Inverse folding.
């Protein structure tokens, strides 16, 4: 699988790789645990995401032309192999959670009698189909769909403005207590799960584009931050904090209130939820691509055939994983209990290891070349 | 046609085995004998079977042996005015030669001074004697036969081991007509016709620049059809030209009649449902594309030419978009977009909204539709299928019938069938509205070939809608976008400038900005020169009233 | 080929959620009331097929046949009752288009909360459908045909969705009800729907405490509550000026409420900015001084009424305005004594009135 991607495609793909993980549940955990300090917890989360992305870009710069998901020459096989397994498990788990979550949303609001497995299979199949071609095609598709979804969401979301009743909940409190704030930020950190895709994606940038692409990725993250900030104001302002923390999918429940009686489809907000399927699909497509590509260093001749085989394999695993959650209750428990700490460890403990190994390698090379 | 016989092919290697009946054997044997003699003579004189020996006798024999029974073949011995001693043979195909020009040529050849009084060698002397026009010397039989059969007149003179090819052909052709398949309200009304030379002249007529280059290829081992590749040097990317050249040269077919027969050889997705070649009979379209850094391919005998590379957008644009004002052009383009959406999504949405997700629709609308459907025995999917089949039948029947009948059929079909089927209670009245809108919607696409792709997609959309409703429509759309994103011609993404997003190209996409703003050629074509126009220098406002002493104050 | 055929048959058969609209019994109104032995009765109002047919050919439904029919069921829970009702209907009871939910005011608190929980959990139920409470027998309400010729549920939808047709905008959606029920420092209120000979009558509000209606306001009180909620649009109130009766109409207000901490508690402050149109005034009295005096008179009158209303609500421990909600959100530690805080709070009502129109005569 070869092919380069443009700066814009890199930025959108990286962004699309994390939006879907948060859009449905946000900002339930923030409000539930941080209470009136939720705004600050949200800001902290965003800062942490910027920092995490910055760390991964540092790691990417060690070997900008090679995906570092499996880097035996950097970490030695004994460390590189567990790192790869960790990466694969994480990506699978993220895809599983997002697929499963979206299937529950559809099953609860739209397609009550359609079996869950059908809804999950639809997501995985379509995402796998788009990832089937090659990276440039995938990047183009994601660029197109993601931008469309963002625009539609913001446009329809703004229709919620008249429904805002709990303005008081949105206004930041002057008194800050640190513990709930930190705990809320920790629990709500799923908002930016997925930017670690850059580990695999970065080498596909043209060498001359890389510096600019990093900048664009930060800008895209800032835009996403604004997008979520709007989402925060709307969901919290419309639902009020007490109702919001009881809702499984606050964004969906809030969006359902949009009702334009004079239009052909009056429940535009509910329609929008199906549009959020685009976020889910782009998330799963980029993840499936990443999974299938991450294992490439293990094969001597990694052809398109192998890539597609791996795509099918991981697609099946994701589907199986997604289907193993009978209700959203188990899903939330899994995401909060297992994934939140795991992703945090991955994003903030792995890069230092890589960076240290990179520094050592660099030093060794310098010693060798010096007389 | 005797030429259809395998024996007519000059090269033995290309001949195909046929099985003549026993009574033909005798005739075949004598013809073979004749031909062998002719070949032998060439072989003796030239040492090469494929070249002209210089003997008129042999040449005549060879031509007769190959094309002897062709009723339109004319072999005429004449006596050159300035060299009466040299036997001369004029060969042409009747009906492909301009009789006036032929007469003039023969007259020129018949009179003239003494051979010895002419300067230089005989060959150049003769050349000077020949009429104006394209005259070439050729000694390879294969070339000569190809030329003869495409209308060139051959002149053999005893003692000259070559023949002159006089281009005094006049091919049967209709005049330059109007582009019936792509009519336009304003602007040029000129279409290509079946004669390549005319088509090339039409392009030349619009680009008076030596940098416009034509390169010709002969494709089809039987038809030897001339295919011309046009591009503008210094503008079109040479890599593109080279790539198209290679692909054209690599085409190995027995025959080529239509441009659409060679187009699948020029891109990498021959199986795709979506057209990757936009063919047109409009001269101005081809010129527009050439000026945008594309190459054009024209095929002799087909009034439809095409340009490369193309993206999805090309199928939604017409030359008229550049004739009208930016406002009108943008409006029309939006209408086409709406047309496609209506054609592709309206009926699937009906199924999705009224079978799977009725909660999305206003209550009164749901109740109205439920009321209309009270006594309909079939589900919406079935209704859609029935109506769509009726529409497709009417469409195809109207295509096959002569124009006046087609109009009648359309009206009768739409009105009578539409009314009757509602009265019969098979389909609800809303469906009639929807099916009409859908059918009209897809007709707004200027390029006919694109409609077919959407008509197929429509069915996939219907299936998606009826299984998982609106969500299914979105899934199919995502798959569709993914599929189209993967399509490329010569590295130009099909969905550009939307996927990949190229903001600088959006000025001439869904909307059409005022022409002075469109200063650059599409980057997707990678032209050598991107600048198309320079920003106008803001002129001093000229106010005619203020001009000295003129006009009323 | 076989796959294609199979697919076609599947499609035509209608799978999973694919159920054509005419095969669904489109429930437009749900009525819920308590039944004997702690059970619950649920009524589903569905338009008849004649009514639907007449809708599509744009003629009014014939008065001979009723436009709707009602299927009902009894059960321990709403879901159970619904299953029972489903057994009496040939079409699939479809809740995606429910317009109106009428709850009996006799529903005990526990059942009331069950009902709201059910409404919140059921996926296709629209959260923007209107809720009302009625003291009349619910079955009777659901069978009532308004004389305007509309389907009853559509009549109510038109009524509720028109913000400026009502004296007080009383529309409450399922969403509002849920939100009020969940938010500390805020009590739920619902419009009272009464069977009236021609149509329905909706001009009162019922105030709830913990799922139990504890106060039903008079129409007049409802207008004053409307001022606090920014929901009054068309009120017309009588006042006296220099002993002569005058009236001001289309009084509407913009109200801001907040809480001021005081020693040992809080003070509730309501700040009303009222605008009105002069309706009747003795001839020749329209002077600047008189208008000013009238404005003061109106402010005084409204303030007094509001104060009385708030005091009575305080006594009952209901706060539909949600005075305390923002304060409690910021001071979460006060949540447990929220009720005490409210009951003992001081009240301050500030009214500022402006007459913005006097009509065509001086």
């Amino acid at each position: 699988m070869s092919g380069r991607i443009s700066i814009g495609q890199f930025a959108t793909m990286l962004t699309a790789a994390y939006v879907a993980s948060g859009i449905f549940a946000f900002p339930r955990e923030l409000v539930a645990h941080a209470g009136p300090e939720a705004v600050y917890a949200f800001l902290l989360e965003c800062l942490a995401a910027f920092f995490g992305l910055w760390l991964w870009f540092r790691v990417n710069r060690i070997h900008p032309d090679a995906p570092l998901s499996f880097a035996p020459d950097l970490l030695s096989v004994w460390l590189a192999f567990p790192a790869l397994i960790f990466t694969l498990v994480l990506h699978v788990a993220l895809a599983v959670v997002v697929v499963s979550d979206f299937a529950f949303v559809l099953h609860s609001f739209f397609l009550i009698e359609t079996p869950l497995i059908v809804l999950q299979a639809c997501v995985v199949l379509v995402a796998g189909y788009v990832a089937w071609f090659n990276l440039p095609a995938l990047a183009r598709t994601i660029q197109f769909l993601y931008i469309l979804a963002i625009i539609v969401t913001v446009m329809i979301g703004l229709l919620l403005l008249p429904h805002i009743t709990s303005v008081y909940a949105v206004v930041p409190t002057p008194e800050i207590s640190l513990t709930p704030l930190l705990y809320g930020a920790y629990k709500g950190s799923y908002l930016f799960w997925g930017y670690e895709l850059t580990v695999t994606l970065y080498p596909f940038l043209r060498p001359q584009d890389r510096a600019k692409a990093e900048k664009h990725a930060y800008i895209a993250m800032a835009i996403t931050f604004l997008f979520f900030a709007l989402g925060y104001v709307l969901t919290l302002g419309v639902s009020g904090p007490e109702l919001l923390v009881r809702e499984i999918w606050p964004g969906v429940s809030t969006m359902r209130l949009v009702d334009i009686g004079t239009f052909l489809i009056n429940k535009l907000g509910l329609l929008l939820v199906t549009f959020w399927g685009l976020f889910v699909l782009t998330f799963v497509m980029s993840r499936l691509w990443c999974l299938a590509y991450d294992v490439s260093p293990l094969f001597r001749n990694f052809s398109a055939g192998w890539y597609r085989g791996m795509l099918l394999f991981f697609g099946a695993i994701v589907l199986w994983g997604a289907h193993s959650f009978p209700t959203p209750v188990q899903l939330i428990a899994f995401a909060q209990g297992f994934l939140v700490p795991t992703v945090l460890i991955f994003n903030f403990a792995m890069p230092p290891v890589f960076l240290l190994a990179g520094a050592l390698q660099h030093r060794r090379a310098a010693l060798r070349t010096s007389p | 046609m005797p030429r259809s016989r395998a024996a007519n092919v000059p090269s033995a290697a290309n001949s195909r085995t046929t099985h003549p009946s026993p009574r033909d054997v005798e005739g075949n044997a004598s013809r073979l004998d004749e031909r062998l003699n002719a070949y032998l003579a060439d072989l003796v004189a030239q040492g090469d079977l494929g070249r002209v020996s210089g003997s008129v006798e042999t040449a005549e024999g060879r031509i007769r042996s190959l094309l002897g029974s062709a009723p339109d073949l004319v072999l005429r011995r004449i006596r050159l005015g300035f060299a009466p001693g040299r036997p001369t043979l004029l060969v042409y195909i009747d009906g492909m030669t301009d009789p006036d020009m032929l007469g003039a040529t023969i007259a020129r050849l018949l009179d003239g001074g003494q051979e010895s009084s002419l300067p230089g060698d005989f060959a150049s002397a003769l050349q000077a004697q020949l009429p104006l026009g394209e005259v070439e010397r050729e000694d390879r039989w294969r070339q000569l036969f190809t030329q003869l059969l495409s209308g060139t007149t051959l002149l053999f003179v005893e003692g000259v081991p070559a023949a002159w090819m006089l281009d005094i052909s006049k091919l049967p052709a209709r005049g330059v007509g109007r582009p019936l398949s792509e009519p336009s309200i304003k602007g040029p009304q000129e279409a290509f016709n079946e004669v390549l030379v005319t088509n090339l002249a039409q392009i030349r007529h619009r680009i008076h620049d030596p940098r416009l280059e034509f390169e010709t290829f002969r494709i089809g081992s039987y038809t030897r059809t001339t295919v011309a590749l046009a591009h503008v040097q210094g503008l079109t990317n040479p890599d593109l030209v080279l790539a198209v050249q290679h692909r054209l040269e690599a085409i190995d077919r027995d025959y080529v009649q239509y441009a659409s027969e060679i187009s699948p050889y020029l891109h990498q997705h021959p199986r795709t449902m979506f057209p990757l070649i936009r063919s047109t009979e409009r001269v101005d379209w081809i010129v527009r594309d050439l000026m945008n850094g594309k190459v054009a391919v024209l095929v002799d005998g087909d009034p439809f030419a095409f340009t490369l590379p193309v993206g999805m957008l090309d199928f939604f644009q017409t030359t008229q978009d550049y004739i009208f004002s930016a406002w009108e052009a943008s409006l029309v383009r939006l209408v086409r977009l709406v047309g496609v959406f209506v054609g592709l999504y309206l009926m699937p949405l009906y199924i999705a909204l009224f079978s799977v997700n009725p909660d999305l629709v206003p209550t009164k609308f749901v109740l109205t539709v439920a009321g209309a459907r009270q006594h309909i025995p079939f589900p919406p999917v079935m209704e859609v299928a029935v109506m769509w089949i009726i529409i497709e039948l009417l469409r195809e029947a109207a295509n096959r019938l002569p124009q006046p009948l087609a109009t009648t059929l359309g009206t009768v079909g739409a009105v009578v069938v539409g009314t009757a089927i509602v009265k019969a209670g098979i389909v609800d009245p809303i469906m009639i509205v929807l099916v009409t809108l859908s059918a009209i919607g897809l007709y707004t696409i200027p390029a006919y070939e694109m409609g077919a792709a959407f008509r197929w997609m429509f069915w996939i959309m219907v299936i998606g809608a009826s299984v998982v409703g609106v969500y299914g429509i979105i899934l199919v759309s995502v798959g569709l976008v993914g599929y189209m994103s993967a399509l490329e011609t010569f590295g130009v993404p099909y969905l550009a400038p939307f996927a990949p997003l190229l903001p600088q190209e959006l000025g001439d996409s869904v909307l059409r900005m005022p022409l002075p703003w469109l200063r650059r050629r599409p980057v997707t074509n990678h032209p050598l020169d991107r600048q198309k126009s320079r920003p106008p220098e803001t002129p001093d406002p000229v106010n005619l009233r203020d001009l000295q002493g003129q006009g009323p104050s | 080929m076989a796959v294609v055929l199979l697919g076609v048959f599947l499609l035509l058969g209608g799978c999973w959620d694919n159920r054509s609209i005419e095969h669904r019994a489109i429930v437009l109104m749900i009525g819920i009331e308590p039944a004997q032995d702690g059970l619950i009765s649920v009524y589903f109002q569905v338009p008849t097929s004649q009514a639907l047919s007449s809708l599509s050919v744009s003629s009014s439904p014939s008065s001979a046949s009723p436009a709707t029919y009602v299927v009902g069921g009894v059960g321990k829970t709403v879901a159970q009752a619904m299953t029972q009702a489903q057994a009496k209907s040939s079409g699939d009871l479809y809740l995606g288009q429910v317009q109106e939910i009428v709850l009996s005011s006799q529903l005990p608190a526990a059942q009331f909360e069950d009902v709201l929980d059910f409404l919140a959990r059921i996926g296709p139920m629209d959260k923007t459908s209107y809720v009302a409470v009625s003291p009349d027998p619910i079955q009777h309400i659901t069978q009532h045909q308004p004389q305007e010729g509309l389907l009853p549920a559509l009549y109510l939808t038109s009524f509720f969705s028109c913000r400026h047709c009502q004296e007080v905008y009383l529309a409450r959606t399922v969403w509002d009800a849920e939100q009020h029920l969940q938010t500390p420092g805020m009590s739920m209120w619902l419009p009272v729907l009464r069977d009236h000979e021609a149509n329905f009558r909706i001009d009162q509000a019922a105030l709830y405490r913990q799922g139990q209606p504890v106060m039903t306001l008079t129409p007049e009180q409802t207008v004053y509550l409307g001022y606090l909620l920014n929901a009054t649009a068309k009120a017309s109130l009588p006042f006296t000026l220099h002993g002569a009766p005058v009236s001001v109409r289309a009084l509407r207000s913009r109200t801001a409420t907040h809480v001021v901490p005081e020693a040992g508690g809080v003070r509730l402050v309501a700040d009303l900015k009222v605008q009105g149109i002069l309706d009747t005034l003795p001839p020749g009295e329209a002077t600047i001084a008189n208008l000013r005096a009238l404005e003061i008179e109106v402010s005084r009158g409204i303030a007094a009424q509001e104060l009385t209303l708030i005091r009575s609500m305080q006594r009952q421990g209901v706060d539909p305005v949600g005075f305390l909600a923002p304060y409690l959100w910021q001071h979460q530690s006060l949540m447990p004594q929220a009720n005490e805080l409210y009951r003992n709070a001081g009240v301050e009502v500030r009214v500022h009135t402006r007459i913005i129109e006097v009509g065509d005569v001086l």
